[in-house]
Amino acid sequence: MLLVLAMLCCLPWPHAHADAAGDRRLVNPRELHDEIHVAPGTETAVKDYFPSFLEYQDLVMFHPKFGYYASGRVSFTTDYQTFPNVLAPYFGQMIAQQMFRMWRGMRQAGTLGPREAFTVAEFGAGNGSLAESILDYLDQQAKDSPDPSWREFAAQVFYICYDRSPALSKKQRERNSRFGKRFEAREADATDPTATIPPDTQKGVVLSNELPDAFSVHKIILSADGSAEVAFVAASLFQKTWERLKKDVPAPVAETVEQGDRAIKSRFFPGKQDHTYLTRAAFVALLEALVPSKDYVSAAQSLEFSELYVPAHVIPELAEHLRRYARFYATELAKDERGVVTYINLGLEKYIQGAGRILQAGFVITLDYGSNWEGMIAQDAHPHFRTYGPAHQEENRQSDLAVDDTTSAPDLDTSDPYRGPTLNDMTTDVNFSLAAAEGRLAGLTTAYFGPQAGLQTGTSITLPEPPADPQQSDAHTSEFYTWARNFHTDGNYKLMVQQKASTGAFYTYPNENSERLASDQTSLTEPQRQKAAQIEKKLSTLATAGRKSQ
């Protein structure tokens, strides 16, 4: 029954792209999704009824009952792939060799004693395959290498996977149980490392691969004049769809939905009777109630979504971020006469600062796709926010093919976060300039930032061919060669190595081909500099405006 309803009732509302392009003058107006407006004077009340985009993303990705990751619904083979999986075990072997150099530098500096653990804390470890590749390689080197230091290094390594998802922690534990007491899998939130690991207690490496891109983000509009608006999400159901769905949910849940709908319509949309609107609480209660249903997927897909944009100062921590980095945003905005839809990853700030704080001595290795300040505001063939999963496989495949062929990306909704909610992964390009700035606040200096291919520099690891495995198909072999080529040529994937100041001076990263992190303010013309100063002033007042409105 629900499947039929979804087919009949989940037609999208008309997009507001054309209007947005004319009214707002945006570089990337198609990233707006069915924008609706509330009456003037009610904007600050939006946060009391609807989830912000960040809250929406966090719910559909990580809610313990229906979240994409927390439910264990994620597939690391069919939904998407990562370099550590496709290029295993070589990718992990490169990291192991880089960590060996870091360990040796710490031993030479005297900041790591021979009896102390060299702890590798991998946050967001997925299915545990990267840990497996690294630990297998350490065992191999300890056995076969003529350098006795490898045996000493392997004996000091203690590897811990941290993940927010209990289902993924279980997979990591099962996969790596053969390493015994040298490996553990624990549950933790990467955006708050010190909640799990006390400050200044770890010596070694904090490692992540494609982790910060999965943090929930604020979606904002930065206008050309420096005004900033943040997205909230209005979920709804066609009235006929709700009338049938409510028969399948407990009465208290139905009452929560209808009570919230009445409140929303009274406050914002009087006379709007063709939809049932969901408050933040009703959205959660409804999906929780539908989880046991065999038609959960079609029910989730029957949800409709619109976006409301309100002044960014309604979220104080976002306003504070924009104030703190106003100069960098202003520099990039001044280069164009149009504004931009962009994404701000406050979880990245918390992760990098937390990683620096838990380290007494050591390094933070971050592998992910992203760019610097300039790249995060500029628009290219790929949107900076993307989705991967069953509802988007064809779009992602065609988009990747277009990029591989150096042609224009097709007109695809790979950035649509509302198609198949809770059924897909959502990722955002990482602002590595922000990671460097936040790292400095926690005593981290950047030892290297550049293409991911820099991971191979200074190692003896090559990517000659897939490991021998008679069970692997020709398609897998072809996939390996494609990813090996992309490892060397895809400039979107980056490597950042940050070093705690107390680590010592005996280590340097073996690659000089680093990329720029600082914002290029010298390239601005005089009119652009004047414009940048005005935008910076406006962004700098956001935090003050937020305090006055409270």
The portion of residues assigned to helices is 40-55%
Largest sheet, strands/sense/barrel: 8 strands, mixed
Per CATH, the class of the largest domain reads Alpha Beta
Q: Roughly what fraction of the amino acids lie in strands?
A: 15-25%
Distance between the termini: 47 Å
List keywords for this structure.
18% strand; five-stranded antiparallel beta sheet; globular; 2 domains; Rossmann fold; 550 residues; disordered N terminus; alpha/beta
Walkthrough of the structure:
The protein has 550 residues and is of the alpha/beta class. Helix content is 40%, strand content 18%. It has helices at residues 2-9, 17-24, 53-62, 83-86, 90-109, 129-144, 149-156, 166-175, 239-245, 251-267, 280-290, 296-301, 316-324, 326-333, 346-358, 373-377, 393-404, 432-441, 474-489, 526-540, 542-549, and strands spanning 118-123, 157-163, 183-187, 202-209, 218-222, 228-238, 275-278, 304-311, 340-344, 359-371, 385-388, 425-428, 430-431, 444-451, 493-500. The strands form 3 sheets. Strands 1, 2, 3, 4, 10, 13, 14 and 15 form an 8-stranded mixed β-sheet that branches. Strands 5, 6, 7, 8 and 9 form a 5-stranded antiparallel β-sheet that branches. Helix 1 packs antiparallel against helix 9. It is globular.
